[in-house]
Design a protein that fits this description.
The chain is built from nine helices and ten strands. By secondary structure, the chain is of the alpha/beta class. Helix 1 crosses helix 2. The protein has a seven-stranded parallel sheet, sandwiched between helices. The protein has a single domain, classed as Rossmann fold. It starts with a strand and ends in a 5-residue tail after the last strand.
């Protein structure tokens, strides 16, 4: 496990970008698992900018969306699919569509899971997975809710933390179309990736990150601690996280 601490988010984003770029240069057809959220917005801007500047370098990579809100149509702002297409538009434009796996939250989960594993297998496994970390009330990784996820879990439908649901309900303007659940790669799927990059910024993630520093796997306190078992983990944080 290697940890890089930047003086600010911008410097940390640059470090995370360099890690990803190194992977792409090492293996131009890498399969990269991607998460979205406030943590990755700056990083994805750097990737998009470089994809426009150095199209040839990025053209062969493959992208895999690691989680999604069930019931969310790809055109909905609460869809991670929507966020990915917005934040990585320039990159997606230069990739072959067959090398992109994005989830449709309105599809039947069994179909999504079957197609996801088929995509991963046909591309030789995930070479690099980009991950964020949940806040103190649920220090999760991907959508593996703390206290409801096991080390041997696979891709599945999951119950979300009540506070996560509250945020989504507000995003739905208080009128979700159905009981909100998620679909996510499981912990075992994540541990089987060849390389993992965990990114955490801001004071609100500090207590969650401290669980990692204890170097003890505790799935009841934070599913993110499972990453301590990953054979090739790099972590990028800003100074606010380690205060």
């Amino acid at each position: 496990m290697e940890i890089f601490t930047g003086k600010n988010k911008e410097l940390s984003d640059k470090k995370a970008f360099e890690i990803i770029k190194t992977q792409v240069l090492k293996k131009p057809d890498s399969l990269i698992g991607i998460a979205v959220g406030k943590t990755t917005d700056g990083l994805y801007k750097l990737i998009s900018k470089d994809a426009v500047k150095s199209t040839k370098k990025w053209r062969k990579i493959k992208l895999f969306q690691i989680d999604e809100n069930l019931g969310a149509h790809p055109s909905s702002p609460v869809s991670f699919n929507f966020e990915i297409r917005k934040e990585l538009k320039q990159l997606l434009n230069i990739l072959n569509s067959k090398n992109i796996f994005l989830m449709d939250g309105t599809e039947k989960p069994k179909k999504t899971i079957k197609e996801a594993y088929k995509f991963i297998k046909s591309n030789g496994g995930i070479d690099l997975i980009i991950l964020g970390i949940g806040p103190e009330y649920d220090p999760h990784v991907a959508y593996n809710t703390t206290g409801k996820s096991a080390l041997n879990s696979r891709m599945r439908v999951v119950d979300l933390h009540p506070k996560v649901i509250e945020k989504l309900v507000r995003a739905y303007h208080g009128k979700p179309q159905r009981k909100i659940k998620g679909i996510t790669l499981g912990i075992k799927d994540i541990l089987e990736t060849k390389k993992a990059l965990l990114i955490a910024y801001g004071k609100e993630k500090a207590k969650s990150f401290k669980l990692i520093l204890k170097k003890k796997v505790n799935m009841k306190k934070g599913s993110v601690t499972a990453l301590l078992l990953h054979k090739n983990l790099e972590i990028v944080v800003d100074k606010d996280v380690v205060k």
